TrEMBL record:
Signal peptide: none annotated. Keywords: Repeat, TPR repeat. GO terms for molecular function: RNA polymerase II complex binding. GO terms for biological process: regulation of DNA-templated transcription; transcription elongation by RNA polymerase II. TPR repeats lie at residues 290-323. It comes from the Bacteria. This is Uncharacterized protein. InterPro entries: Ctr9, TPR-like_helical_dom_sf, TPR_rpt.
Length: 420
């Protein structure tokens, strides 16, 4: 009796297995004919019997499901995510299948990444984050997808997700440093990177490129630690920020990104003296970077070191003459003593000594206007739509008696305000 039951049971399992395989094969055939809805129908019938299947058959099932979902997805993220999950499950059940579906995996990643770029450009950071993370999770090998997912989470101010992804990258030992194959274009003189060594060599043999070289791109670890530090500061967790940057700096004391993280942390915590000290070191490592001098100008201005601030702003402009923010800050620095001058002028009486002092202060005030004016006029030439600059200029033109320029600037400002 027991033997009969056992034989019947085996026959039943065999029948189910045969039915599963039949439906999966039908689905495969439908996929090849681009009949994706039909394929999903067959797979739905097979899925009900999937519990008794072996891992190889399950892997085949999920691979076909991934193809069907990918083929029918278009821009539907729900289906793209379903395809990613199906492919991932298939590979986990049978790692050998990854090579068989490599083309589909590439197509899926390309679709997700291109869609994520569009979302990022449209400032849809949450969607971009989800798509890039989904791309990473397919095989968990393309760690750059996880890195860019974390970056979009930062842009979307989803700091919990950003910290989670950054920590995953650190745990994986990710640096982002990769070997590049480069050569110099004869036509432009620019160094260009190639997809691989063979393509680079072909370009050199063609005679259009010279000086074939290989180089390693800069590590992203410092940037990751810097971003994590700033997130902890933003969340008010200064102890975690300090501990993280202390450990990171000890490991890589000359890493410029980490120095920037330490400097940013010092600045946010109000330690401008340490900020200046660190920024000086950073400037020494990148002396042609105008942004560094601009930031030093701001911190020195806040510390009351106006001469130093002027020096740094001028250096930033020397490196980038059209640096609008530096021009505006320089003008503001020239005008920074105006409030005290006006306050003293208002406090004076009518004595001869007071009248003399009033005239002296008036000349000082006019001199500050004249010193600030060229910077503001240049800033307006760079960006004619900056309403704050126009307001500054209106005030100065009014004070120094430039009535025609005052009226012209006032009209431009009113026109911009009318545009909304």
């Amino acid at each position: 009796m027991k033997t009969r039951i056992l034989i019947t049971g085996l026959a039943f399992v065999s029948a189910i297995s045969f039915g599963q395989k039949k439906e999966i094969k039908k689905a495969e055939k439908a996929v090849k004919s681009n009949e994706y809805s039909e394929a999903l129908t067959y797979l739905g019938e097979a899925e009900a019997m999937l519990g008794s299947a072996d891992n190889d058959m399950k892997a085949e099932f999920y691979a076909v499901k991934g193809e069907a979902l990918l083929g029918s997805a278009g821009s539907d993220f729900k289906k793209l995510k379903g395809a990613a999950e199906a492919f991932s499950t298939s590979i986990s059940l049978n790692p050998k299948i990854e090579s068989e579906i490599s083309e589909q995996l590439q197509n899926l990643r390309a679709t997700l990444i291109n869609s994520a770029i569009k979302d990022q450009n449209a400032q849809q950071y949450k969607m971009a984050t989800d798509k890039l993370y989904t791309s990473y999770m397919v095989t968990k090998k393309d760690t750059s997808d996880l890195y860019f997912a974390a970056g979009n989470a930062v842009n979307g101010q989803d700091y919990d997700t950003a910290i989670k992804y950054y920590q995953m990258l650190l745990d994986l030992g990710y640096t982002g440093a990769t070997k590049e194959f480069v050569a110099t274009s004869k036509e432009t003189g620019q160094v260009e990177a190639f997809e691989n060594e063979n393509i680079r060599n072909i370009a050199v043999k063609s005679g259009e490129f010279i000086k074939p070289e290989s180089r390693v791109t800069e590590s992203r670890k410092g940037e990751i630690l810097r971003n994590m530090t700033l997130i902890y500061i933003e969340r008010g967790d200064t102890e975690k920020a300090k501990a993280l940057i202390k450990t990171a700096r000890a490991e890589n004391p000359d890493d410029v990104f980490l120095m920037r993280a330490d400097a940013d942390m010092s600045y946010k915590m109000g330690d401008n003296a340490r900020y200046n000290e660190l920024m000086e070191k950073i400037v020494a490592s990148d002396p042609e970077n105008p942004e560094l001098y601009f930031n030093l100008g701001i911190s020195n201005d806040q510390l009351g070191n106006q001469e130093k601030a002027l020096e740094y702003y001028n250096k930033a402009l020397e490196l980038r003459p059209d640096y609008e923010a530096a021009l505006i800050n320089l003008a503001a620095l020239k005008l920074s003593g105006e409030d005290k001058i006006v306050e003293e002028m208002n406090s004076l009486g009518n004595s001869a000594a007071d009248n003399k002092r009033y005239d002296e202060l008036k000349k000082q005030r006019e001199q500050s206007y004249k010193e600030a004016l060229p910077y503001l006029e240049k800033a307006r030439a760079i960006n004619p739509s900056n309403q704050n600059v126009l307001k500054y200029l209106m005030n100065i033109y009014s004070q120094i008696g430039e009535d025609a320029k005052y009226k012209e600037t006032k009209a431009k400002l009113e026109a911009l305000e009318a545009q909304g």
